[in-house]
Amino acid sequence: MKLYQTGATPSCRRVSIFLKELGVEVPRVEINVREGDNLTDEFLARSVNGKVPMLELATGETLCESVAICRYFDASYPNDLHLFGANPLAKAEVEMWHRVVEFQGLYTAFQAFRNITGFYADREHCVEEWGHESKKRVNEFLPVLEKQLSQHDFVAGNAFTIVDITAFLFIGFCINGLKIEVLEDYEAIRLWFEEISKRPSFN
């Protein structure tokens, strides 16, 4: 089994943090996406989406998409962490909040950064105006997250889940990628972010 990754990217970090929470070690293969290692014929022949992370199983089968990979490990290594929820309601709440944080937060932030900076202009059409609109939508979403965290210890309720991993990466990307002063402007997010940062899996 091998995990192909570009370690610093949010999607790969999500899997890495998840694996640390589970206490699972997997051999890694570093891929340089900036140089286009993921666009080679060899990589694309094994990857559905041509992106990292990609998990290659001992059987030769491959899995793409970070959450799918996390689900695979969660099911393959029995545990009582309930990172996808502990009961039917909790599972539904985790799914709900995960989609909200991904679609309104993390993916929108990606669109803002990529279109404003033209970071991947060599392989995709960038529209700066769409980047600024996406950043505006990120700023409009932050109060939603602030409200939830002012009422709950964690994003999906009162237990740590994969949603907190994704939200942590989203906030970090806002700060470092989009230069949004999230921790200065949102107290509940700041307190949650500081507490989450203390978990060994995030270091």
UniProtKB/TrEMBL annotation:
Keywords: Transferase
One cellular component term from this protein's GO annotations in UniProt: cytoplasm
InterPro entries tied to this protein: Glutathione-S-Trfase_C-like (IPR010987), Glutathione-S-Trfase_C_sf (IPR036282), Glutathione_S-Trfase (IPR040079), Glutathione_S-Trfase_N (IPR004045), GST_C (IPR004046), Gtt2-like_C (IPR034346), Gtt2-like_N (IPR034345), Thioredoxin-like_sf (IPR036249)
Domain GST N-terminal: 1-81
GST C-terminal domain mapped to chain residues: 87-203
EC number(s) stated in the UniProt entry for this protein: 2.5.1.18
Any Pfam family hit: GST_N_2
GO molecular function: glutathione binding; glutathione transferase activity
PROSITE patterns in UniProt: GST_CTER (PS50405), GST_NTER (PS50404)
Name of this chain's protein: glutathione transferase
